[in-house]
Amino acid sequence: MAASPPKAVFKELEGIFANFLWGSGDNGPKHHWIRWKDLCVEREEGGVGLRLLEDIHRAFSIKLWWNFRSKSSLWASFMHAKFCRVVHPNLVFSEKGSEGWRRMGKVRALAERNIGWIIRSGNVNFCVSDHKVADFVHGGSWDVCKISQRVPPDIVAEIGQLHPPGGSLPDLMVWRPEPSGRFSLKTAFFLVRHHSRPTPLFKRIWQLGGPSRCSCCTSPEIETTEHVFCEGAMARFVWQFFGAPIWAGSERGEVREQKDCGGSSMPFDLLRGDTVVQDPVSGLSGTVRVVGPFLFGHIEVESGISHRLAEARALLFGVNLCLQRGIATFDVEMDSLTLVRILNRLAHCPWGIHTEVQQLMAVASYFPRILHCYHQANQVADMLANTRCQRARDEIYLAAAELPWLARGALFLDRLGMPSLRQFVIRKG
Protein backbone atom coordinates (compact mmCIF):
# COMPACT_ATOMS: atom_id res chain seq x y z
CA MET A 1 0.00 0.00 0.00
CA ALA A 2 2.95 2.32 0.54
CA ALA A 3 3.66 2.21 -3.21
CA SER A 4 0.20 3.51 -4.10
CA PRO A 5 -1.61 5.24 -1.19
CA PRO A 6 -5.43 5.51 -1.37
CA LYS A 7 -6.91 8.83 -2.50
CA ALA A 8 -8.37 9.27 0.99
CA VAL A 9 -4.83 9.53 2.36
CA PHE A 10 -3.98 12.25 -0.16
CA LYS A 11 -7.12 14.20 0.77
CA GLU A 12 -6.40 13.91 4.48
CA LEU A 13 -2.87 15.21 4.04
CA GLU A 14 -3.98 18.05 1.76
CA GLY A 15 -6.59 19.04 4.34
CA ILE A 16 -3.80 19.42 6.91
CA PHE A 17 -1.81 21.51 4.41
CA ALA A 18 -4.81 23.77 3.76
CA ASN A 19 -5.47 24.30 7.47
CA PHE A 20 -1.85 25.30 7.93
CA LEU A 21 -1.98 27.69 4.97
CA TRP A 22 -5.17 29.52 5.98
CA GLY A 23 -4.36 29.44 9.68
CA SER A 24 -6.61 28.88 12.68
CA GLY A 25 -8.09 30.86 15.55
CA ASP A 26 -9.61 30.17 18.93
CA ASN A 27 -12.64 28.64 17.25
CA GLY A 28 -10.65 26.29 15.03
CA PRO A 29 -9.45 26.50 11.38
CA LYS A 30 -10.28 29.68 9.50
CA HIS A 31 -12.44 29.75 6.39
CA HIS A 32 -10.81 28.39 3.22
CA TRP A 33 -11.59 30.96 0.56
CA ILE A 34 -10.19 28.95 -2.34
CA ARG A 35 -10.21 25.20 -2.95
CA TRP A 36 -6.88 23.47 -2.47
CA LYS A 37 -7.15 22.08 -6.02
CA ASP A 38 -7.45 25.61 -7.43
CA LEU A 39 -4.37 26.73 -5.48
CA CYS A 40 -2.34 23.89 -7.02
CA VAL A 41 -1.96 25.49 -10.45
CA GLU A 42 0.52 27.99 -11.84
CA ARG A 43 0.25 31.64 -10.82
CA GLU A 44 -0.68 32.65 -14.37
CA GLU A 45 -3.65 30.28 -14.06
CA GLY A 46 -4.94 31.69 -10.79
CA GLY A 47 -3.09 29.46 -8.30
CA VAL A 48 0.02 29.84 -6.19
CA GLY A 49 2.18 27.10 -7.70
CA LEU A 50 1.50 24.36 -5.13
CA ARG A 51 1.21 20.72 -6.19
CA LEU A 52 -1.44 18.08 -5.70
CA LEU A 53 -0.10 14.93 -4.07
CA GLU A 54 -1.96 12.79 -6.60
CA ASP A 55 -0.22 14.60 -9.49
CA ILE A 56 3.16 14.07 -7.83
CA HIS A 57 2.33 10.39 -7.39
CA ARG A 58 1.44 10.07 -11.10
CA ALA A 59 4.64 11.85 -12.16
CA PHE A 60 6.72 9.39 -10.15
CA SER A 61 4.69 6.55 -11.63
CA ILE A 62 5.73 7.74 -15.11
CA LYS A 63 9.32 7.73 -13.90
CA LEU A 64 8.86 4.11 -12.80
CA TRP A 65 7.58 3.21 -16.29
CA TRP A 66 10.52 5.03 -17.89
CA ASN A 67 13.02 3.11 -15.75
CA PHE A 68 11.17 -0.12 -16.51
CA ARG A 69 11.23 0.45 -20.28
CA SER A 70 14.88 1.52 -20.30
CA LYS A 71 15.96 -1.71 -18.53
CA SER A 72 18.58 0.28 -16.66
CA SER A 73 18.49 -1.72 -13.42
CA LEU A 74 18.16 -5.21 -11.97
CA TRP A 75 14.61 -4.32 -10.88
CA ALA A 76 13.64 -3.45 -14.47
CA SER A 77 15.06 -6.72 -15.78
CA PHE A 78 13.15 -8.64 -13.10
CA MET A 79 9.86 -6.88 -13.96
CA HIS A 80 10.35 -7.64 -17.67
CA ALA A 81 11.05 -11.29 -16.93
CA LYS A 82 8.01 -11.58 -14.65
CA PHE A 83 5.30 -9.71 -16.56
CA CYS A 84 6.31 -9.55 -20.24
CA ARG A 85 8.78 -12.32 -20.93
CA VAL A 86 7.34 -13.23 -24.35
CA VAL A 87 5.19 -10.21 -25.21
CA HIS A 88 5.66 -6.46 -25.67
CA PRO A 89 5.01 -4.47 -22.44
CA ASN A 90 2.25 -2.47 -24.15
CA LEU A 91 0.39 -5.68 -25.01
CA VAL A 92 0.06 -6.85 -21.40
CA PHE A 93 -3.49 -5.94 -20.32
CA SER A 94 -3.85 -8.15 -17.27
CA GLU A 95 -4.92 -6.37 -14.10
CA LYS A 96 -3.12 -8.95 -12.01
CA GLY A 97 0.31 -8.40 -10.59
CA SER A 98 2.05 -6.49 -7.87
CA GLU A 99 0.95 -3.07 -6.65
CA GLY A 100 3.91 -1.48 -8.46
CA TRP A 101 2.96 -3.12 -11.78
CA ARG A 102 -0.66 -1.97 -11.52
CA ARG A 103 0.55 1.53 -10.61
CA MET A 104 2.69 1.70 -13.76
CA GLY A 105 -0.15 0.35 -15.87
CA LYS A 106 -2.32 3.37 -15.00
CA VAL A 107 0.14 5.78 -16.64
CA ARG A 108 1.45 3.46 -19.38
CA ALA A 109 -0.52 5.06 -22.23
CA LEU A 110 0.50 8.59 -21.28
CA ALA A 111 4.14 7.65 -20.81
CA GLU A 112 4.37 5.77 -24.12
CA ARG A 113 3.00 8.76 -26.05
CA ASN A 114 6.01 10.75 -24.86
CA ILE A 115 8.70 8.10 -25.37
CA GLY A 116 10.60 8.11 -28.65
CA TRP A 117 13.40 6.09 -30.15
CA ILE A 118 16.53 6.93 -32.11
CA ILE A 119 16.85 3.94 -34.42
CA ARG A 120 20.40 2.74 -35.02
CA SER A 121 20.55 -1.08 -35.12
CA GLY A 122 16.78 -1.54 -35.41
CA ASN A 123 16.40 -4.05 -32.58
CA VAL A 124 13.56 -2.10 -30.97
CA ASN A 125 10.00 -3.34 -31.47
CA PHE A 126 8.05 -1.97 -34.43
CA CYS A 127 4.73 -0.27 -33.62
CA VAL A 128 3.80 -2.19 -30.49
CA SER A 129 4.41 -5.62 -32.01
CA ASP A 130 6.79 -8.52 -31.56
CA HIS A 131 8.55 -7.63 -34.83
CA LYS A 132 11.79 -5.63 -34.79
CA VAL A 133 12.32 -2.50 -36.88
CA ALA A 134 15.16 -4.27 -38.68
CA ASP A 135 12.64 -6.87 -39.94
CA PHE A 136 11.10 -4.15 -42.14
CA VAL A 137 14.37 -3.30 -43.90
CA HIS A 138 15.38 -5.14 -47.06
CA GLY A 139 18.56 -4.48 -49.00
CA GLY A 140 19.40 -1.35 -47.04
CA SER A 141 16.01 0.33 -47.67
CA TRP A 142 12.55 0.19 -46.15
CA ASP A 143 10.27 -2.67 -47.18
CA VAL A 144 7.27 -0.46 -48.00
CA CYS A 145 4.94 -3.36 -48.81
CA LYS A 146 5.60 -5.02 -45.48
CA ILE A 147 5.21 -1.74 -43.57
CA SER A 148 1.91 -0.99 -45.34
CA GLN A 149 0.43 -4.14 -43.81
CA ARG A 150 1.03 -2.76 -40.31
CA VAL A 151 0.44 1.00 -40.37
CA PRO A 152 -1.78 3.53 -42.25
CA PRO A 153 -0.53 5.10 -45.52
CA ASP A 154 0.29 8.49 -43.98
CA ILE A 155 2.54 6.81 -41.41
CA VAL A 156 4.21 4.80 -44.21
CA ALA A 157 5.14 8.07 -45.92
CA GLU A 158 6.66 9.44 -42.70
CA ILE A 159 8.71 6.26 -42.16
CA GLY A 160 9.96 6.45 -45.75
CA GLN A 161 11.58 9.82 -45.01
CA LEU A 162 13.69 8.34 -42.21
CA HIS A 163 17.05 6.67 -42.64
CA PRO A 164 16.81 2.85 -42.42
CA PRO A 165 18.64 1.30 -39.46
CA GLY A 166 22.11 -0.05 -39.91
CA GLY A 167 25.11 -1.01 -37.83
CA SER A 168 25.36 -2.59 -34.41
CA LEU A 169 24.94 0.38 -32.07
CA PRO A 170 22.00 -0.03 -29.67
CA ASP A 171 18.82 1.97 -30.22
CA LEU A 172 18.35 4.94 -27.89
CA MET A 173 15.17 5.63 -25.93
CA VAL A 174 14.45 9.35 -25.53
CA TRP A 175 11.99 11.39 -23.50
CA ARG A 176 10.31 13.54 -26.13
CA PRO A 177 9.19 16.51 -23.95
CA GLU A 178 12.82 17.14 -22.95
CA PRO A 179 15.16 18.52 -25.67
CA SER A 180 18.09 16.54 -24.22
CA GLY A 181 16.09 13.31 -24.44
CA ARG A 182 16.71 12.56 -20.77
CA PHE A 183 13.78 11.91 -18.49
CA SER A 184 12.89 14.68 -16.04
CA LEU A 185 10.25 14.79 -13.33
CA LYS A 186 9.56 18.41 -14.23
CA THR A 187 8.22 17.55 -17.68
CA ALA A 188 6.44 14.45 -16.38
CA PHE A 189 4.67 16.54 -13.75
CA PHE A 190 3.64 19.08 -16.41
CA LEU A 191 1.94 16.26 -18.33
CA VAL A 192 -0.15 15.12 -15.38
CA ARG A 193 -0.76 18.26 -13.34
CA HIS A 194 -4.10 20.00 -13.02
CA HIS A 195 -4.37 22.83 -15.60
CA SER A 196 -6.52 25.93 -15.68
CA ARG A 197 -6.88 28.54 -18.38
CA PRO A 198 -4.23 31.26 -17.97
CA THR A 199 -5.34 34.89 -18.03
CA PRO A 200 -3.33 38.14 -18.24
CA LEU A 201 -5.08 39.37 -15.07
CA PHE A 202 -3.56 36.69 -12.84
CA LYS A 203 -0.13 37.26 -14.34
CA ARG A 204 -0.42 41.00 -13.76
CA ILE A 205 -1.47 40.53 -10.13
CA TRP A 206 1.71 38.63 -9.34
CA GLN A 207 3.84 41.20 -11.15
CA LEU A 208 2.38 43.98 -9.04
CA GLY A 209 3.27 42.34 -5.74
CA GLY A 210 6.41 40.87 -4.24
CA PRO A 211 9.00 41.73 -1.60
CA SER A 212 11.88 42.49 -3.99
CA ARG A 213 11.45 45.89 -5.66
CA CYS A 214 13.93 48.23 -7.30
CA SER A 215 14.63 51.27 -5.12
CA CYS A 216 16.44 53.26 -7.83
CA CYS A 217 13.28 54.20 -9.75
CA THR A 218 10.57 56.75 -8.96
CA SER A 219 8.01 53.96 -9.60
CA PRO A 220 9.53 50.85 -7.99
CA GLU A 221 9.09 47.61 -9.93
CA ILE A 222 10.10 43.99 -9.38
CA GLU A 223 13.85 43.50 -9.74
CA THR A 224 13.88 41.33 -12.86
CA THR A 225 17.04 41.03 -14.94
CA GLU A 226 15.48 43.09 -17.73
CA HIS A 227 14.45 45.86 -15.33
CA VAL A 228 17.81 46.13 -13.54
CA PHE A 229 20.00 46.07 -16.66
CA CYS A 230 17.77 47.41 -19.45
CA GLU A 231 14.39 48.88 -18.57
CA GLY A 232 14.94 50.63 -15.22
CA ALA A 233 15.53 54.38 -14.94
CA MET A 234 19.11 53.91 -13.74
CA ALA A 235 19.86 51.35 -16.48
CA ARG A 236 18.49 53.67 -19.19
CA PHE A 237 20.60 56.54 -17.85
CA VAL A 238 23.76 54.41 -17.98
CA TRP A 239 23.08 53.18 -21.53
CA GLN A 240 22.30 56.69 -22.77
CA PHE A 241 25.45 58.02 -21.13
CA PHE A 242 27.73 55.56 -22.91
CA GLY A 243 25.80 55.69 -26.18
CA ALA A 244 23.72 53.20 -28.15
CA PRO A 245 25.14 49.70 -27.95
CA ILE A 246 26.93 48.83 -31.19
CA TRP A 247 28.78 45.61 -31.88
CA ALA A 248 31.49 45.58 -34.53
CA GLY A 249 33.11 42.53 -35.98
CA SER A 250 35.19 41.68 -39.03
CA GLU A 251 34.76 38.74 -41.32
CA ARG A 252 38.48 38.29 -41.66
CA GLY A 253 39.95 35.02 -40.46
CA GLU A 254 43.16 33.06 -40.42
CA VAL A 255 44.02 30.99 -43.48
CA ARG A 256 46.74 28.39 -43.60
CA GLU A 257 47.98 26.05 -46.29
CA GLN A 258 48.15 22.28 -45.91
CA LYS A 259 49.09 19.43 -48.20
CA ASP A 260 46.90 16.41 -48.70
CA CYS A 261 48.14 12.83 -48.89
CA GLY A 262 48.60 13.10 -52.64
CA GLY A 263 51.08 15.93 -52.28
CA SER A 264 49.03 18.58 -54.07
CA SER A 265 48.59 21.95 -52.40
CA MET A 266 45.10 22.68 -51.04
CA PRO A 267 44.12 26.00 -49.45
CA PHE A 268 42.86 25.75 -45.88
CA ASP A 269 39.30 26.89 -46.51
CA LEU A 270 36.65 28.32 -44.24
CA LEU A 271 33.05 27.10 -44.14
CA ARG A 272 30.63 29.56 -42.59
CA GLY A 273 26.98 28.73 -42.03
CA ASP A 274 23.85 30.47 -40.87
CA THR A 275 20.15 29.76 -40.57
CA VAL A 276 17.13 32.03 -40.49
CA VAL A 277 13.80 30.45 -39.51
CA GLN A 278 10.60 32.19 -40.57
CA ASP A 279 7.74 29.77 -40.00
CA PRO A 280 6.90 27.77 -42.01
CA VAL A 281 10.05 28.20 -44.18
CA SER A 282 13.64 27.90 -42.97
CA GLY A 283 16.56 29.46 -44.81
CA LEU A 284 19.69 27.29 -44.60
CA SER A 285 22.84 28.79 -46.04
CA GLY A 286 26.61 28.74 -45.97
CA THR A 287 29.67 30.13 -47.70
CA VAL A 288 33.00 28.47 -48.44
CA ARG A 289 35.91 30.83 -48.99
CA VAL A 290 39.52 31.61 -48.43
CA VAL A 291 39.98 35.11 -46.99
CA GLY A 292 39.68 37.17 -50.15
CA PRO A 293 38.59 34.76 -52.91
CA PHE A 294 35.06 33.37 -52.81
CA LEU A 295 34.81 29.66 -53.62
CA PHE A 296 31.10 28.86 -53.46
CA GLY A 297 27.96 29.29 -51.36
CA HIS A 298 24.64 27.52 -50.95
CA ILE A 299 21.07 27.92 -49.78
CA GLU A 300 18.57 25.06 -49.48
CA VAL A 301 14.88 24.50 -48.77
CA GLU A 302 13.55 23.27 -45.43
CA SER A 303 10.14 23.72 -43.83
CA GLY A 304 8.41 22.80 -40.60
CA ILE A 305 11.58 22.17 -38.59
CA SER A 306 13.14 23.71 -35.51
CA HIS A 307 15.91 26.30 -35.62
CA ARG A 308 18.43 23.89 -34.08
CA LEU A 309 17.66 21.17 -36.63
CA ALA A 310 17.90 23.72 -39.43
CA GLU A 311 21.38 24.75 -38.22
CA ALA A 312 22.55 21.13 -38.12
CA ARG A 313 21.20 20.35 -41.60
CA ALA A 314 22.73 23.52 -43.04
CA LEU A 315 26.14 22.53 -41.72
CA LEU A 316 25.76 18.94 -42.92
CA PHE A 317 24.80 20.16 -46.40
CA GLY A 318 27.79 22.51 -46.53
CA VAL A 319 30.24 19.85 -45.31
CA ASN A 320 29.02 17.34 -47.89
CA LEU A 321 29.28 20.03 -50.59
CA CYS A 322 32.90 20.69 -49.63
CA LEU A 323 33.76 17.00 -49.78
CA GLN A 324 32.03 16.58 -53.15
CA ARG A 325 34.10 19.43 -54.57
CA GLY A 326 37.39 17.93 -53.36
CA ILE A 327 38.15 20.25 -50.44
CA ALA A 328 39.99 17.91 -48.10
CA THR A 329 40.56 20.14 -45.05
CA PHE A 330 38.64 23.16 -43.87
CA ASP A 331 37.51 25.01 -40.76
CA VAL A 332 33.88 25.44 -39.71
CA GLU A 333 32.56 28.66 -38.23
CA MET A 334 28.98 29.04 -37.03
CA ASP A 335 27.07 31.62 -35.05
CA SER A 336 25.17 28.82 -33.27
CA LEU A 337 27.15 28.45 -30.05
CA THR A 338 24.97 25.52 -28.97
CA LEU A 339 25.82 23.47 -32.06
CA VAL A 340 29.51 24.40 -31.80
CA ARG A 341 29.59 23.13 -28.21
CA ILE A 342 27.82 19.91 -29.20
CA LEU A 343 30.25 19.17 -32.03
CA ASN A 344 33.21 19.92 -29.76
CA ARG A 345 31.75 17.44 -27.24
CA LEU A 346 31.25 20.15 -24.62
CA ALA A 347 27.45 19.79 -24.44
CA HIS A 348 24.92 16.98 -24.61
CA CYS A 349 23.37 16.38 -28.03
CA PRO A 350 19.57 16.91 -28.11
CA TRP A 351 17.70 13.90 -29.43
CA GLY A 352 16.07 15.94 -32.20
CA ILE A 353 19.38 16.44 -34.06
CA HIS A 354 21.10 13.19 -33.06
CA THR A 355 21.07 11.74 -36.59
CA GLU A 356 22.57 14.87 -38.17
CA VAL A 357 25.24 15.20 -35.47
CA GLN A 358 26.27 11.56 -35.90
CA GLN A 359 26.68 12.10 -39.65
CA LEU A 360 28.82 15.17 -38.95
CA MET A 361 30.94 13.27 -36.43
CA ALA A 362 31.59 10.58 -39.04
CA VAL A 363 33.37 13.12 -41.28
CA ALA A 364 34.78 15.34 -38.50
CA SER A 365 38.35 14.52 -39.51
CA TYR A 366 37.94 16.80 -42.54
CA PHE A 367 37.26 19.88 -40.39
CA PRO A 368 39.62 19.74 -37.37
CA ARG A 369 38.44 23.08 -35.98
CA ILE A 370 34.84 24.01 -35.22
CA LEU A 371 34.70 27.64 -34.15
CA HIS A 372 32.04 30.06 -33.00
CA CYS A 373 31.65 33.48 -34.58
CA TYR A 374 29.19 36.19 -33.68
CA HIS A 375 26.21 36.88 -35.89
CA GLN A 376 27.75 40.19 -36.98
CA ALA A 377 30.86 38.40 -38.31
CA ASN A 378 28.78 36.09 -40.46
CA GLN A 379 27.06 38.60 -42.73
CA VAL A 380 27.47 36.84 -46.09
CA ALA A 381 25.89 33.59 -44.89
CA ASP A 382 23.29 35.62 -43.00
CA MET A 383 22.29 37.44 -46.18
CA LEU A 384 21.98 34.14 -48.02
CA ALA A 385 19.77 32.71 -45.28
CA ASN A 386 17.47 35.73 -45.50
CA THR A 387 17.40 35.36 -49.28
CA ARG A 388 16.25 31.76 -48.91
CA CYS A 389 13.26 32.90 -46.84
CA GLN A 390 12.16 34.98 -49.85
CA ARG A 391 12.73 32.30 -52.49
CA ALA A 392 11.39 28.78 -52.89
CA ARG A 393 14.27 26.80 -54.39
CA ASP A 394 17.69 25.40 -53.58
CA GLU A 395 20.62 27.34 -55.03
CA ILE A 396 24.38 26.87 -55.19
CA TYR A 397 26.59 29.83 -56.13
CA LEU A 398 29.93 29.03 -57.76
CA ALA A 399 31.15 32.62 -58.18
CA ALA A 400 30.83 35.86 -56.27
CA ALA A 401 29.06 37.46 -59.24
CA GLU A 402 26.20 34.96 -58.86
CA LEU A 403 25.42 35.96 -55.28
CA PRO A 404 22.31 38.03 -54.44
CA TRP A 405 23.19 41.71 -54.36
CA LEU A 406 22.96 42.02 -50.56
CA ALA A 407 25.29 39.07 -50.00
CA ARG A 408 27.60 40.34 -52.74
CA GLY A 409 27.75 43.72 -51.03
CA ALA A 410 28.56 42.15 -47.66
CA LEU A 411 31.36 40.13 -49.30
CA PHE A 412 32.78 43.27 -50.95
CA LEU A 413 32.80 45.18 -47.64
CA ASP A 414 34.53 42.27 -45.95
CA ARG A 415 37.28 42.25 -48.59
CA LEU A 416 37.86 45.93 -47.86
CA GLY A 417 38.23 45.12 -44.15
CA MET A 418 35.14 47.10 -43.19
CA PRO A 419 33.61 46.19 -39.80
CA SER A 420 30.10 44.82 -39.61
CA LEU A 421 27.82 47.06 -37.52
CA ARG A 422 24.56 46.16 -35.91
CA GLN A 423 22.44 48.65 -34.00
CA PHE A 424 20.20 47.45 -31.18
CA VAL A 425 17.15 49.53 -30.30
CA ILE A 426 16.12 49.57 -26.64
CA ARG A 427 12.48 50.48 -26.25
CA LYS A 428 11.67 52.77 -23.36
CA GLY A 429 9.02 52.04 -20.79
TrEMBL record:
CDD domains: RNase_H_like. Transmembrane segments: none annotated. It holds the Pfam family RVT_3. It comes from the Eukaryota. Residues 299-386 form the RNase H type-1 domain. This is RNase H type-1 domain-containing protein. It comes from Coffea arabica. The lineage of its organism: Eukaryota, Viridiplantae, Streptophyta, Embryophyta, Tracheophyta. The gene is LOC140008771.
